[in-house]
Specification:
There is one protein chain. This protein is α+β, with helices and mostly antiparallel strands and 202 residues long. The protein has a single domain, classed as Protein Transport Mog1p, Chain A. Helix content is 19%, strand content 40%. The strands form three sheets. A seven-stranded antiparallel β-sheet has the order 5-6-7-11-10-9-8, sandwiched between helices. The N terminus is likely disordered.
């Protein structure tokens, strides 16, 4: 997930903004215990549903997973076998980013929260912290474990936040990432989380 991580590493988010911007809770699971006895709040997502009219679709895994993205975003080049869409500002900096990647390592529904944080740290993040997590999240055609995390990149110390979900369908497993710069989260979160809610797997 090199491309996924390198881009996401440039996109960091704030806990309060992430949770406040998601109006519907899709996962009904309780909070998880964290180190030191604190509890990790649930990720709040829009309920799984098909993308709005006018959105575009990009297939992953030979059509066994479909990433939906809004007209304001455009497909961008990524690693072979992945699908990415993004929106840029006039200077070419990312404003919003979506990525779907097939399962590539030992990630599972059970270990996803820890796996994602460690992956970020190993690849491109100076720091990465878990903000929220939910298990048993319903997707179109499958089930997922989702996390919201914030991190700072090793290059240029960019701050980003991402909603990252490991999704298991009947035949395949994959990861969907929705990210934006921290300063953009309040305006970008609703669209990005809507895209995650529309992710389809088989």
């Amino acid at each position: 997930m090199a491309r996924l991580t390198s881009l996401a590493a440039g996109l960091g988010w704030v806990a309060a903004g992430v949770l406040a911007a998601a109006p519907v809770a899709a996962a009904g699971c309780s909070s998880s215990p964290a180190a030191g006895g604190a509890s990790i709040p649930r990720v709040r997502l829009l309920a799984a549903r098909h993308a709005p009219a006018g959105w575009h679709n990009a297939s992953l895994l030979g059509g066994r997973a479909v990433l939906a993205y809004p007209p304001a975003m455009h497909l961008v080049e990524g690693d072979r076998g992945t699908v990415s869409a993004a929106k840029f500002n006039a200077s070419g900096a990312y404003l919003m980013y979506l990525n779907a990647t097939p399962k590539q390592s030992s990630e599972t529904l059970g270990n996803w929260p820890g796996f994602r944080i460690e992956h970020l740290k190993k690849e491109n993040a100076v720091t990465a912290r878990l903000i929220a997590e939910s298990r048993g999240v319903r997707f179109l055609g499958g089930t997922g474990t989702c996390v919201v995390d914030a991190y700072v990149t090793k290059v240029k110390s960019n701050h980003y936040t991402e909603l990252a979900c490991f999704v298991r369908g009947q035949t395949t497993s994959s990861v969907i990432i929705a990210a934006a710069p921290t300063a953009r989260w309040a305006s970008a979160s609703r669209v990005l989380m809507r895209a995650v809610a529309a992710y389809q797997v088989q």
